[in-house]
Amino acid sequence: MQKVIFDTDPGVDDALALLYLLRHPDIDLMGVTTVFGNAPVALTTRNARFLLRSWGHDVPVHAGSAGPLTPDMPEDDFPVHIHGRNGLGDHPVPDDPREEAESASSFLIDTIRANPGQIRILAVGRMTNLARALQTAPDIADLVRDVVIMGGAFRVPGNITPAAEANIWGDPLAADLVFGAGWQVTAIPLDLTTRTFMTRPMLARLAQEGGPDMQLVADLSQGYVGFYRQSGYDGMVVHDCCASVFLTDPELFALTTGEVRVPWQGIALGTTMMNPSDRQGPMDAWADRPRQAAALDGQPEAILARIAQVCAG
């Protein structure tokens, strides 16, 4: 069994990624940590609890960062046109009166230290929680098994600016810290996720075959599907669930390795810049950085088939 911490900002596609983790027999979900991103952290925390409660799981949820480490970045610019005002496509979510102190970084540190070499972190939002944990306890980089992120745009345009993908753009300083730490990072970027498109008929079929749990995902995804329909697509991109599949089926992904930097100022803010391992020449700002990986290619149809097998099985 793989011990996984899911760092997330639910988020419509986050919901599908979470269901995949819960239903896969090889995943032991140790906890969920939440971060601002698709909605304010109070809502992403409430949403994570709502999904887990709806699906009959008592996995602990730890509230995380409400804003970025990067100076002068907006803290209230949420994609309501994609994920709705509540983060889950405006699907009804009961109020949760609990107000918690931020505990995500502490949970990450404590759980990694208690399980040396075993924890896999799957981060599908801003990487602020991970960066703060590193700042507090740099030793965890040597203790974690690896870190898998949904984020980046290495050889394709970004989806926030021409240079940057949303999760990286939302806190580029945090992303640069995470890519620069001495743990193994694998990015599942837009290069692959934008090619992994679940059609509306496929979503409907999974809802029918997957029971009430998958039906909930389909219900809260309708606004997300509508967003893509405005651009002429009949379905939705499943960014975050691609990263979940990497944990269980890495052979479906083709990795490129190299040192990664993320500028956190200027016109290139949020760009994921990789120095490929086969490149010859001066390293400059990439010197002394660890070599990380990015899935710039893969098998989208096989990834979708695996999602269907697990989430509707």
From TrEMBL:
Q: Hydrolase: is it a keyword of this entry?
A: yes
Give the matching InterPro entries.
Inosine/uridine_hydrolase_dom, IUNH, Ribo_hydro-like
Q: Which organism is it from?
A: Paracoccus rhizosphaerae
Question: Where are the residues of the annotated region Disordered?
Answer: 83-102
* Domain of life of the organism encoding this protein: Bacteria
The record's listing under SUPFAM superfamilies reads: Nucleoside hydrolase (SSF53590)
Q: What is the lineage of its organism?
A: Bacteria, Pseudomonadati, Pseudomonadota, Alphaproteobacteria, Rhodobacterales
Molecular function per GO: hydrolase activity
Claim: rRNA-binding is one of the keywords in the record: no
Q: Which PANTHER family match?
A: INOSINE-URIDINE PREFERRING NUCLEOSIDE HYDROLASE, URIDINE NUCLEOSIDASE
Question: Which Pfam families would you find in this protein's record?
Answer: IU_nuc_hydro
* Keyword terms of this UniProt record: Glycosidase, Hydrolase
- Its name, as the record gives it, is Nucleoside hydrolase
Question: Record's CDD domains?
Answer: nuc_hydro_CaPnhB (cd02650)
- Give every Inosine/uridine-preferring nucleoside hydrolase domain span: 4-286
